[in-house]
Amino acid sequence: MYYKGQLKDKKYENDRLDDRPHYFGKGEVGEIIKDSSSNRKYFAEIKNYEKFKSSVHFKNEDGSYIENIPESKQKNYFWDGVREIAESTYKQILSKAEINSNESYKQFSSSKGYDKDFESHEEGNKKERYTTDYERNPINRQKAIDYHGLDCEVCGVNFQERYGELGKGFIHVHHIKPISEYNKSFRPDIKNDFAVLCPNCHAIIHRPKKKTLSIEELRKLIN
């Protein structure tokens, strides 16, 4: 069941059935797709959507709400965009909209998360990207490893100890200050401008959008 609140912006007036709060249509929720730009948002496929010919106001003629609103949620009940309603309420709204209210009533779970496995979508097409790369000197990398060693300076993992011969000599060399912030070529200090990190710690240290974490800050996180 879909609804709109009180009209506040006149530019949407022609897109609505009514200026007052009202129910305007019904449909079924189909595939749920995670929003790739947000960890907390999802898109929902709407199937079998049917728009009402006339609006159904939130309230009955006697001023009572069609929905049974708990007393604790009187002020913000309609802010909850997804919620469960009783079958009798569902059929009452359809009846007021002059739509067959004898159809089957489908309940849904309002619990967080989804039990359904998301279906895969096509991928693998080639894309061209144009980026600016900053030159790294392999000699500096080796000198940094010679000085700092092969143990991650945050979590302590050593890849040869963990994976044997396959992990021998493997570690990421991290620039304490990102190269992009220099805006020119420079000669780094092997002792103070580098750190050695495992790929996990290296990825997390760069994850904040506004700054690069320090070694000390990352150590505090995992401790």
TrEMBL record:
Name of the featured protein: HNH domain-containing protein
Source species: Fodinibius salipaludis
Domain HNH: 152-206
Any single Pfam family the record assigns to this protein: HNH
Entry's Gene Ontology molecular function annotations: endonuclease activity; nucleic acid binding; zinc ion binding
Biased composition (Basic and acidic residues): 113-129
Region listing for Disordered, in residue ranges: 107-129
Membrane-spanning segments: none
